[in-house]
Automatic annotation (TrEMBL):
Pfam families: TniQ. It comes from Hansschlegelia zhihuaiae. Residues 5-143 form the TniQ domain. It comes from the Bacteria. InterPro entries: TniQ. This is TniQ domain-containing protein.
Amino acid sequence: MKRLPLTVPLGHREAPSDFLSRLAVRNCIRDMRTLAHDLHLDVQAVICGESAALARLAEAGAADQAALEREAFAGSPRGISIFHRAHKFSRTIQLTRNQVRICPACFREDLDAQSFQAEARPYRRAHWIISQIKTCERHHLALAPLGGWPPPASRSIRALSLRAPYACCRSSRPRPSNAR
């Protein structure tokens, strides 16, 4: 597989599906499913952390496959557990599939850190997908919902940053890091 003409740096603790989505935006492709189709990738395999899919994604995006694998959520063979970062969670853990939450300070730092199009700069940290996590471990701010979710099926998660109300940066308040 060839490397994409435009790439983005894999973010620290970025979920593989979000990396795929940012690559789509960076390459002016309307959504991650279209890019996945072009790359002969199964989106569900990327989301589920399948090694072969992550290897193809790493190659296309010039990323470290091991880093992608560390941040992937993978189910157990019988579907009773979820694994993330070598931690085993029961199926009772809730993943926020219907809402994107961000740390406003991380979001702002991501926007300021790169010089390519703004829509492809911010990224969601994989552990923010776990609904029981309520605060940013770095900034101790409450994770704020990003506006406009769920998007129409043709849009990527990254496209939300185009319409996202940056007001969420003003509305978050510090919380103790152990707050739930």
